[in-house]
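alpha-L-rhamnosidase, Spirosoma liriopis. Tokens?
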Amino acid sequence: MSALNLTAIFLKPAFQIARISICILLMATTAYGQTAGKPVHLKCEHLVNPLGIDANKPRLTWRLDDSRRGAAQSAYQLTVGTDSIAVSQGQANEWTSGKLTSGQQLVRYAGKPLRPFTKYYWRVEAWDQDGVKLVTSSVASFETGMMDKKNWQGSWISDSRDINLKPAPYFRRSFQAAKKIKSARAYIAVAGLYELYINGQKVGNHRLDPMYTRFDRRTLYVTHDVTSLLQSGKNAIGVLLGNGWYNHQSTAVWYFHEAPWRGRPTFCLDLRLTYDDGSVETITSGKDWKTALSPLLFNSIYTAEHYDARLEQPGWNTANFDDRNWKDVIYRATPSETIVAQALQPIRNVERIPTKTFKKLNDTTYVFDLGRNIAGVSHIRAQGSAGTVLRLKHGERLYPNGHVDQSNIDVHYRPVGTSDPFQTDLFTLSGKGDESFMPFFNYKGFQYVEVTSNKAVELTAASLTGYFMHSDVPPIGQLKSSNPTIDKIWWATNNAYLSNLFGYPTDCPQREKNGWTGDAHIAIETGLYNFDGITVYEKWLADHRDEQQPNGVLPAIIPTGGWGYEWANGPDWTSTIAIIPWNAYLFYGDSTLLADCYDNIKRYVDHINEQSPSGLTEWGLGDWVPVKSKSPVELTSSTYYYTDVSILAKTAKLLGKEADYAYYSALADKIKSAINAKYLNRQTAQYGTGLQTELSIPLYWGLVPEELKSKVAANLARRVEADNFHLDVGLLGTKAILNALSENGYADVAYKIASQETFPSWGWWIVNGATTLYENWPIDAKSDISMNHIMFGEIGAWLFKGIGGIKPDPQRPGFKHILLKPHYVTGLNHFDATYESPYGTIRSSWKRVGKGIAYTVVVPPNSTATVDIPVASGQRVFESKKPFTQASQRGQNATSSTYTLQSGTYQFDIE
Ligand code: BGC
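Tokens:
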């Protein structure tokens, strides 16, 4: 079923809601006045005016800027064409949807076949709830790229085949622009990493392009608008290639140095020039390029970089450089058959972090402290004599003597010799005055940098700056509460999340940089509540499809050079294949990823079904890094298996695959029964021995029979009380516990756990100075002690759900309908949650006023909400100071009132 059909189903209840709330609307026009609405936030493939996309039916999305109560879209019309002025006047030479009666704001392009290398302009007209036309949107654009591998003209070139050669290669060629250039695009596909230069200037501000994929299955290309960098007459193109994950020279326990795709980096480039007269010329990579080794003597995505400024060749990437001594390039085979556009948010140096404190230990040793833990690089400036070598050792902690301690993060590194020290850049000065260095093709996880030199140098706090790097996903969630520790936990969670987002989600930015599946599905909601990251997950799920074995098995880390098909890849980890597409659907209302992964999810669950016909499976790691108690792996793994089958069944229904729906619904029921038969004691309402994880997991993932839910939840609350309101869970339990409590009447208990400041808790880390989340509960643990892990990060989502009470409705996903259920938990005086949903800003903000609560709600245009307001007996609900009566009371001892809200701002007082 298409997204369009879905709307048809949901339109009916939406109109019923519209009728019920007509009184609210009338009130709104007087109380709030009218604002003329307008379609805004036009995006294509979830990106703003993207360049170089390959999708032949791209997704177009928008939202309304309309603050009136009841603002909604009753109809829309899209106009797409190649002439921006014509499009702005409503003339389409490619597609007009015609005026369609629909509230849909995610529509696939359905016009003439798109052509490569073409800029398309589009605009949206929308009609409001009364059929009145809104102001027409501004014109947005998308530009197609290659669209088909056949359109590449350049050749894959490199300097060598030697994978052990250390220095990074430069490539260059100059050319004469025949006529006046109107526009120019560089298309560059790389196995490895690159920096591209035109006439001496670095192109763009991306870092670590292209993103890591399984290079022998899918290679990404990037499109750059380089018009402004070119000049008439002679021009030069320069390329510096790095190893990245393509040529992993460092040796560690995951054997990336033995990856089947490994090779000396190689690239293919088409520089497409469009001249003023409309003619096109393409400058390509080929035998007319020259190559030389660069001053970048060594680069490893995993460890560090070594750079010798004495070997710099000034002007190497400019037109008049003399490259007579440079070598010829060689041709190379294409690394994979699939060369596709990189259509996702790029990695950038997102935040500049100056040194906070600085210590000179002696004339050749300095320690810089950024004051917070990050993923990224340091930039050093120094002066010294030629040949002075600065060693920049990066780490997350210090020894008592003030030196950088890497013992928590270098444990899986297996260096051969001493030439590739862990997280340690080597910068050799040329002696030519003020010099600086920042790695090109590496990043690290660190807070401290110890700089040592072989000759005395004078450094100051200003000599070193940190750059927080990550996929530059726009922040879309905001939280503010009366508890500073909670606010810091949220911030630290986001720091850990971003530190682990580099075109794929990772476990940690230092010790591994692995795309650990389990960590990623645990963090998916934290990610999506806080950042607009769907594009990264769409790319990563393509990595999943590349890595899946024909029998459905997925590796524990994705991408992988082969490691991880044998260990740690049970359903508790690799359920990413189902859980991530499902969440993308819930948060964006976009079923593309579910449809793309449908067969993969099916193969995956069919495999488990074959292996475990009883419905129970012990395949998995279980509740990883627990505080103390260990829950049965069979219970947790079978629950994830159940979750995957349930998602598959729901997806089958969504996609109109009725037979699959029936089959997988029955399978899900069977698994649920098998789990309950073995682990649930129906007399005592206990699962297993009644541990926190044993009780939370069935509650959260929907295994508990309806009639026993409140008893199981009461058992969980008692268990937590017996544990002194502290956590006794590992990775799987942290995902479930807070939700299991707050969804079942124990929000206060959940909050008590969430706000603890003594061991074991998130707050314990914070009061001990954490600025990111850790991998282990004890701060002085002896193993599993990365200080920048996202795997305990569900709390960053739970704060939105369990306290702010903002949730997507699976029946009308993408926040077309919002489920609002705030919890005014004991211990908090106010809590303000804001979320930029696909329809616009959602706000759920409450504060205590005397004995009552003031509660502000914002429902975005074209969306509706069901708000469930906790009301104590004897309390009444007012909205804008008037009694609010649209409640569906729940029996006589009502403890909450449920209202259906149209879009707009509401000011409730519960008194
Ligand atoms: C990673 C974890 C991961 C785990 C699974 C660790 O080394 O850092 O986050 O999920 O292994 O075994």
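Residues 507-508, 512, 516, 518-519, 568, 621, 624, 789, 791 surround beta-D-glucopyranose (CB under 6 Å).
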